[in-house]
């Protein structure tokens, strides 16, 4: 019988892991099934562009994985049973139970409300394609002079605010953050960020702890009211609750705790990558939730799993950082160099040069997803006898 590998989620981490496994393992020995709710690969790092009115290239997953041996299963994941080694799906043919021998969990994250009243009812997000399209439609309804407030001073908030302000200069765009906006950046990068905000007419509210979101305004903990016909919520991420409902060891935020090979510390037949995983990074700090982390986590998980299945030495790689990229509209960006431990340095590239670097990185990531068979030589190795599946074979509707 073939060893069944099920990959949940086809974002950056899941798609890379599935493609890499297909390159590492012999098709006669494995079945690789990739489960994803969307039929296309979604460039999450460009969703602020989609929300502002730009159209993104279509990348159907069936085209991406054609000829790789990866079987696509369009479906929503509703539950995982790590004791029975099964996954519950809700797809085009209704409810389905899918069995696995090894699970790669890459369901990613969505916007987190932080428990603030009114976020679910009145705020829009950019964490998913559907969210971005709803925001796009709402932006299109605003008349000139309309007020837009982005809540959150991190990378997503900055990119959303600058993209919207550049695309709709007729709107009054503001950004509210609990702390400082871009406070982690170098002095040069912060100065450039302020210059761009001034050029685009973005009003910044720092130290604004949003306590409530209403239909046409937000209210801070100190009672300040900030007008907002449209509120865009980017203040943090939350993982899907599916993992926390299993017997997997998870963090207090629901992320699956993994070792250096991205394997669950409680279930050796489960790997987790991307935002859904909690892995120790340089200096003992958790790797941050980002595309920059998702890709190397996927490489590590796929290579480690392939090595274990084929009886080879498990690679020992340290995941670290090199830079942080922030787009500031289509013609400007910040390329901030960082240390391996993710500490900023004085080296930074801004303006059009920064935008070209940012675009090159984003385009390169999308290209690698769209061409999974071209990223490295094929070395499809046979599985060892000790890695044959032991779980019951389930695939029922």
Automatic annotation (TrEMBL):
Alphabetized, the UniProt keywords read: FAD, Flavoprotein, Oxidoreductase
Annotated ranges, domain FAD/NAD(P)-binding: 4-302
Is the Oxidoreductase keyword given for this protein? yes
Q: A GO molecular function for this record?
A: oxidoreductase activity
Q: Which Gene3D superfamilies match?
A: 3.50.50.100
Entry cofactors: FAD
- Name the EC number(s): 1.6.5.-
What this protein is called in its record is NAD(P)/FAD-dependent oxidoreductase
